[in-house]
Amino acid sequence: MTNFQKAAIKSGAFTLPGYYYTAATIFQEEMERIFTSRWTLVGRVEQIPAPGDYFLVKLSGESMIVVRDRDGAVRAFFNVCRHRGTQLCTAEQGHFSETIQCPYHAWTFGLDGRLITARVMQDAPDFDKADYPLHTAAIAEWEGFLFLNLAPKPEPFATAFAPLIGRLPQWRMATLQVGHRIEYDVQANWKMIVQNYSECYHCPLVHPALAALSPWQSGRNDLSEGPFLGGYMDLNHASMTTSGQTTRPPLGKVDGADLSRVYYYSIFPNMLLSMHPDYVMVHTLWPQATGQTQIVCEWLFDPATMAQPGFDPSDAVEFWDMTNRQDWHVCELSQLGVASRVYTPGPYAQQEGLLWAFDQYYLEVMNEEL
Length: 370
Ligand code: FES
Ligand SMILES: [Fe+2]
Fold this sequence. Notes:
2 domains; alpha+beta; binds fe (ii) ion; 22% helix
């Protein structure tokens, strides 16, 4: 039986010093220690259903090709030719027929990364094609989500994600598909976004419509320390929609108490996962600079429901688009304030226990020996 508890803080729980949100050196360190070395959400398997399908992502300044190979496996390659380093591919997504060919001198790589042909290189001394495969990165799937890790020797995904693997089966997330997507450019540090997501202390003021559907003090958490944090809040209507109602059936095996709950988890470092009875919402955070984060928000539904005539996700999309914008606004105000010379860490409320836990884990990662 999972044990759900109210958020709580210990004495001395204060917010982070301002430089964690404003210093370029901290941001650079985060790119190395976190966004290069941790499993980071980059997309969904359904973006690349067929062999040869690919999409590009930019992570820690690296352009990466995520592709489905001929055997159906998902692979990730640095978008860098092994001849003179040229970027191989510029279209954000597409399909490779059989191979990946460099536009400069036509070195050609297989979808498994092997160098297959290198024009006239048979004349070059000591050249062996086997020595020049594409540089690879580790990629793993959980519930249809793809996580990339750029570290040469990453922590095994199964170890890193052990607390989550097999944990949330009712929603059948692997089978869902994105029904709507909105991108936001938010002038706030990525940690502000995670922290804002992790408390509902602000809900009655910032989100009156949300607070009417979900009591702001109802949050109970089953993951309250470490890289994955969250739990559920009560839902006193059928779903989180503009009307509070829904015509969509529950997802997968969602049943019983889960029909009147929304589960919220922050998955370190860049995934915010919100599971409603009838849809799932995912925020992917892409830090751009100390005070700038690109946020991709996606609404996932059961494809059978999406195939119904008249399927309309706008009740869920509009509700959360409004709520998202309310959140981004207060995050942007916080970003402005923590940059002030008079800002000093402030005391957390009991309800902000997950923020305190996030800060502790974050500091642990930032202070780890490399
Ligand atoms: S740089 Fe790619 S083939 Fe020459
Ligand atoms: Fe909020």
